[in-house]
Design brief:
Layout lengths: L9 H6 L1 H12 L6 H10 L1 H11 L10 E4 L8 E4 L2 E2 L1 H5 L7 E7 L6 E4 H17 L7 E5 L4 H13 L2 E5 L5 H11 L3 E5 L1 E4 L2 E4 L1 H9 L6 E5 L14 E3 H4 L11 E2 L3 E6 L9 E5 H15 L7 E4 L6 H7 L7 E6 L9 H9 L3 E5 H9 L4 H4 L7 E5 L5 H11 L4 E4 L1 E3 L4 E5 L13 E2 L5 E4 L5 E2 L4 E5 L9 E2 L6 H7 L7 E9 L5 E6 L13 H8 L5 E11 L2 E10 L7 H14 L8 E4 L13 H8 L29
Parallel strand pairs: 4-17, 6-7, 6-8, 8-11, 11-12, 16-17, 16-18, 18-19, 19-20, 31-32
Antiparallel strand pairs: 1-2, 3-13, 4-5, 9-10, 14-15, 15-27, 21-22, 22-23, 24-25, 24-26, 26-28, 28-29, 30-31
Helix pairs in contact: 3-4, 6-7, 8-9, 14-16
Length: 649
């Protein structure tokens, strides 16, 4: 039997929030004596479980609920905490003392910023008043094309305080990538920085913002946060003002009291079959789910300093910011995780006393290759939990953590997604850590593994599904009046059951192993990328007839492989390869750029004319293609077999 890499001490268990929660439930419910029993109770009795989370996390509301769950047999269609009125921002700003709320660090040490909870409240008050004076009302959209800075958090909170809906993407996106997202939701106000720093380079954002504004007429006000310059030139931007000039002198916030499912965030799908789908998440569902995950599964307390390496375009940013509701210190980092030194994040962790350190499996793998050995250089005496997500955490990654970072730490691999703005599988301070496994399924999440026939599996890989509703399901998709996009995204495979698209296994320890995506979405470095976003850029080039992108499993990760069919008499030389990569990088993001570009004479299609990425992905991995009868040109698959380019770095 596999031995655990870490087992919680008696002291860890005694002081864990999960233990306190378990004791409260135990006093009211017989037979709930340990985590497995607590988990079973939470999914069998959601109408009793979720109010317990509400009370334990002290969620602030001006009006209590009439019913915990309405139409609980429907998925989608279930509604939570009907009749309740609350404000998301009010819950995150419940503390207004001198404790540190936000710390900002970047590649340059002299740009450190620290804000107390009192100062954070004051800035949100001044910005909320400014937004109100700009005409922003409940239901309007406010967007951020921002680095991971305090102003991004402040802007989100100010928008949420009014009942506006916040949406953000990271500043490494090109013009088309931004328009694909914000063009659909039509924000009224746009926040941006003049640029950002990455890997020692200074990147200007204002030229791209100008290009975005030319095709985004809904934006009535642009607010620019100086970052790379003290007072950048914004004269070329219409309706633009500086952050400091925009703020008013208001000192109090009138928090709009809104329904539990009032739209809070708009997140985006990967864009596999076209423009990214706009996923709308409700304020109450996001809040209660995040607090459950942070306070219970991550054991977050007020004295903690929590960090996650993320951009503002990834749901882990939204998850991290919810830590303010616990009163912890949130550390924001913007820049490369390996500049100016390979160990910069661990130096910051030591200097700032980070106790919960969040990152990705890809980062841990890269750190090991760079021979980063924090244990030899830093004390890390406050560090007690490391969380990892984005892609499967391999056993080798886990062993590296305990060997080179810290021996006594709970390494929690977690997994969920933008679709649920939270997690299906999480860490747990009460449970041991086994190599390659996620410790447990999240409380209240009826997660199962099922085969193609919908039968539950254990000890064998299959589709990860959730068989009962949960509060952080999307409220709806934007521009999806009949709900068809929403239904097709999750419920067309197993009717009435959420199919997440992960290939996973439920282990003998009741943990999970995630093997990767079960669909054709690309997943390099744990960041979901839609092939359609790549195709739209590549096929604009006159040299390219059509293209096909797949993910190749490579050295514990996934790398993007782009196949291109060229026009007659065109050769795929170094010049064309560079042109393709630059086009993709400039108009989407650096993560979309393929690791390999390979010219092929034909692309396989279904009889209905759709290119078939999954068949190609199977071929390059040496797996059989089950149904070649569905292909109009199955002979095209021969061009993808045993390619020498795919056997090398």
């Amino acid at each position: 039997m596999t031995q655990p890499l870490w087992t919680p001490s008696k002291q860890v268990i005694e002081h864990a929030n999960m233990t306190k929660f378990l004791e409260k439930v135990r006093r009211r419910t017989s037979g709930v004596g340990d985590y497995p029993a607590l988990y079973r109770w939470s999914v069998e009795h959601p109408q009793r479980f979720w109010p317990q989370v509400w009370a334990f996390c002290n969620i602030q509301a001006s009006q209590t609920w009439d019913q915990v769950l309405v139409d609980g047999h429907k998925m989608p269609g279930a509604r939570w905490f009907t009749g309740a009125r609350l404000n998301f921002a009010e819950n995150l700003l419940r503390y207004r003392d001198q404790r540190t709320a936000l710390v900002f660090r970047c590649e340059q040490d002299d740009k450190r910023i620290s804000l107390s909870y009192r100062a954070l409240y004051a800035q949100v008050a001044a910005l909320a008043d400014a937004l109100k004076k700009s005409g922003v009302q409940s239901g309007d959209r406010v967007a951020g094309f921002m680095p991971n800075r305090p102003e991004t958090v402040i802007a989100m909170l100010a928008a949420a305080s009014l009942g506006a809906t916040w949406s953000s993407c990271s500043p490494d996106f090109g013009i088309n990538g931004v328009l694909d997202r914000f063009g659909q939701i039509e924000p009224r106000v746009l926040f941006t920085c003049d640029g950002y720093f990455y890997a020692g380079k200074t990147v200007d954002s204002l030229e791209r913002v100008r290009g975005v504004l030319e095709k985004l007429p809904s934006v009535q006000r642009v607010v620019v946060v100086p970052y790379i310059e003290t007072r950048p030139d914004i004269s070329a931007l219409p309706r633009a003002t500086y952050w400091a000039d925009y703020l008013t002198g208001a000192t109090e916030i009138e928090f709009a009291q809104l329904p539990f499912d009032h739209p809070l965030y708009i997140m985006y799908s990967s864009g596999t079959t076209g423009a990214p789908k706009c996923i709308v998440h409700g304020a109450g569902g996001t809040l209660i789910q995040h607090l459950k995950e942070l306070a219970l599964h991550t054991d977050l307390k007020r004295e903690d300093v929590i960090f996650y390496f993320t951009t503002c375009g990834w749901m882990m940013w939204n998850w991290l910011v919810s830590s303010l509701a616990v009163g912890a210190t949130v550390l924001l980092y913007d820049g490369s995780p390996f500049h100016p030194s390979h160990d910069i994040l661990w130096r910051i962790a030591d200097e700032e006393g980070i106790s919960i350190f969040g990152t990705s499996a890809k980062y841990l793998s890269a750190a090991e290759k760079f021979s980063v050995r924090p244990k030899q250089k830093y004390k890390l005496d406050k560090l007690r939990i490391i969380t990892s997500t984005g892609s499967p955490l391999l056993p080798e990654n886990s062993e590296y953590v305990y060997r080179e970072i810290k021996a006594d730490v709970c390494l929690s691999s977690i997994s969920g997604g933008t679709d649920i703005i939270s997690c299906f599988a999480l860490g747990n301070p009460l449970l041991p850590v086994y190599p390659g496994e996620l410790q447990c399924r999240g409380l209240g999440m009826a997660v199962e593994i099922r085969n193609e026939d919908g039968k539950p599996l254990r000890g064998k890989p299959g589709e990860l599904v959730c068989v009962k509703p949960f509060p952080s399901m999307p409220v709806f998709f934007w521009n999806d009046p009949d709900g068809k996009k929403y239904h097709d995204a999750y419920f067309d495979y197993f009717p009435g059951i959420w199919r997440h698209g992960d290939w996973a296994e439920l282990t003998e320890h009741d943990g999970l192993i995630i093997y990767g995506r079960s669909d054709t979405t690309l997943n390099p470095g744990g960041v979901r990328i839609g092939t359609a976003e790549i195709y739209r850029q590549v096929e604009k080039l006159p040299e390219i007839v059509e293209s096909l992108a797949v993910g190749q499993d490579w050295q514990g990760d996934v790398r993007v492989i782009l196949f291109v069919r060229l026009r007659e008499n065109v050769q795929l030389d170094e010049t064309l390869s560079k042109k393709i990569r630059k086009t993709i990088r400039d108009n989407t993001s650096p993560r979309h750029v393929p690791a390999k570009i390979i010219a092929i004479p034909d692309i396989p299609r279904t009889i209905s004319g759709k290119i078939t990425e999954l068949a190609v992905r199977n071929v390059i991995h040496g797996r059989p293609v089950k149904n070649t009868d569905a292909l109009a040109n199955p002979q095209a698959l021969e061009h993808y077999k045993n390619l020498p380019e795919l056997q090398a770095d």
